[in-house]
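Hi F.,

I've been meaning to write this up properly since the lab meeting, where we talked about keeping a consistent format for the predictions we share between groups. The idea is simple: the sequence comes first, exactly as it goes in, then the structure tokens exactly as they come out, then a line or two of notes. No screenshots and no reformatting. I'm using this chain as the first example so we have something concrete to point to.
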Amino acid sequence: MTTTSTPTSKPTLRADRLRLAGTREFARPGAGAARRQATTAATRAALSELWLQATGGRSLVGVALAATGSLARGDSGPLSDLDLVLLHDGRQRAGELTALADRLWYPLWDSGLGLDHAVRSLGECRKAATADLTAAVGLLDLEHLCGDSEVVLGVRAALSHDWRANARKRLPELVESVQVRHERFGDVTQTLAPDLKEGAGGLRDMTVLRALTSAWLTDRPRGAVDEAHATLLDVRDGLQLVTGRGRSRLNVEDQDAVAALFGDQDSDDLLTRVCGGARVIGYALESTMRRAGQSQRARTLRVGPRRPVLSPLGYGLHAHDGEVVLGGRAVHGSDPLLVLRAGIVAARAGLPIAPTTLANLVEHAPALPQPWPAEARDLFCDLLASGPGLIEVWEALDQAGLVSSWLPAWDAVRSRPQRNGIHRFTVDRHSIETVVNVSSMVREVERPDLLSVAALLHDIGKVAGARDHSLEGEPVGRALATRLGFDSDDVDTIALLVREHLTLIELATRRDPTDPATVAAVRAAVGDRLDVLTMLRWLTEADARAAGEKAWTPWRASLATELFQATEAAMHADRLTGAGSAGAGAGAHARAEEPSRQPAAVPEAAGAALAAGQPWVGATRSGTAWTVTVVSPDRVGLFADTAGVLALAGLEVRTASVRTTDGVAVDDWIVSSPSGDGVDVEALARALDRLAGGDTAPLAALARGRRRAGPTASSRASSGAPGQSRVLVLAQAGTDATVLEVRAGDRLGLLHDLGRALSRAGLSVRSAHVATYAGQTLDTFYLTDAGGRPLTPGAVAQAVATLIDACDGVGEG
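Output, unedited:
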């Protein structure tokens, strides 16, 4: 090997790259890809010239200069570091290699660019890759620059083979390293000064995606993720241009300059673009790592043809290998609301929806009419009430474009930063966190669906240029609530909660919460409605907890509670004395009022069965819901038996109206069928007839099914929000009956358990009104004793305890 003297002309590669990136052609918005190509080409040309100088123009066999990192991938920024490897086949003398390396490295150090360098043989590369996961991933990008290309090809082939062969061992290591890095550098999507390279959703995650693909375990997503990658690269390039440093952390003080470089209106718009791109990359990485894990498990476990293990979730959906998937016989078009159902069961089960399944659902999901039909609205509220699993599922639905189609105004708050010391999330993520917090509070209110939607929309007015987001959000919330199909009264309530969601905490912390004037201000804000006050109280806490610890300190919590209790007491006092506004307490228990007790109309078709003393069952279909009408001679336990046979048939009760007149029960049950099957009215009638005769066999399977978590996993997942079940005594709701309201998480067989508990206590259900809001059942029972009289105080206390035990599954057998 011939040695030559070190070049005397000092390289200007750093200055050349900055000058190139700053030219008018490449500095304009949208020129990022062309700029990076030009930067890469200029860098390679400079390195080729340096190689010729270092080698004296001689062709060296078995020696080559190769690149890893951004230069190898062709996405170099103006001041990106150089990652170079001097490869050799082991036949050269150490001194000659060292001299050649010195002639290469010293001029590059002098150029001012960061340099990561190494001199390695094939064996040394393999050893480094085995010992260091970061090195192994980086070497997968190995790209020939100068010299003997056969050496580079051989090393790259060997390292790729090793990576694939050791995928089983290295995949868990790779997943763990990603988690550690994300914890260290934070989440690009939720940070005001994000690390564009190392943070979660950053450029390094794209390298991990390529590494997973190189292991032949999975393909990586294309399209949107490539656009997101280009966005982050553009911002990184702009950051390096305005700071003159090869950094990747987008500090607050640099954001205005970078935003101006790309024509963003302000730094918030810049951060919104960054967050949006990082969310796409993060979602792609998460789903791709899951695919790789599934592929690896399949390779490990397969010893022959193996059928997938599918656990039914209802509506043609199944749990499979940690995801929610469509079954092979599922027909997309048969249920236009299937995508909402998939979101519910996935969130309740804490599982992601498989990307392929989600794509199929989106492709076949028809546009919903405006306003939405009641069933769609109810399912949407169930989705919001599904608990912590909502966060991951909502992100998937949002990435698929569904949230924008449901709530067009959501686009204006998606990924919007919040620049204060209280908030820790972007506007949209904060809203979802508030919804999740509300899901643990819904048993404290009469209309959890309204509370959940208000939580979702409470910050919908936090858009660019907004002065008072509460006031600006009110008309937007009103329009979206109308679009979702709520009636005018419910729309007014949601809009009021959006407008006043800060009122309670602001008055509590800025004024004396015990002062009558402060109480009067709260009453004026909520329209003197106790039900709205209660929802506002829980929305206030959920909002503050989602913001962060600084927003819901013990001091702030105590002040808000004190003001709420003072206002509540004032409303109760005025209601007892008849004082206050005409609308005081409006809506507080409107749902509990028993409808007119005119004799219920008996369908003509039921006449013969009723005359014979037998039950009659009819069913009519409306969309994907069924109305099941049961006509029967009244008896103790009829309500429990009907609820039981419906549950055993796999039917989920949405609402019900149970009425008894002159010894005849005429009950309407609105149900859905997760299996997709129809309602077998003859089987239901036979089961009820056997139960009336004392044969309990038709319900024996219900207890067994409940012990093994029920006939459908959608019912299994319907455990409701966390929190204690509640039974309220509505003292003034009934004239000749005792009225109890049950609030609990909906689940398989709950109504049967409630009815059975009442019948065991010897209580008659004169009428019952069942409603399900946001995954919670709010059931109102008009009860009498065996003589048809209202219950005594002692019997009321016993009934309350009995119903709570039934809600919580105490004493099931």
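Notes:
The CA atoms of residues 380 and 606 lie 36 Å apart.
The chain has four domains: 13-165, 169-299, 314-577, 617-807.

If this format works for you, I'll send the rest the same way.

G.
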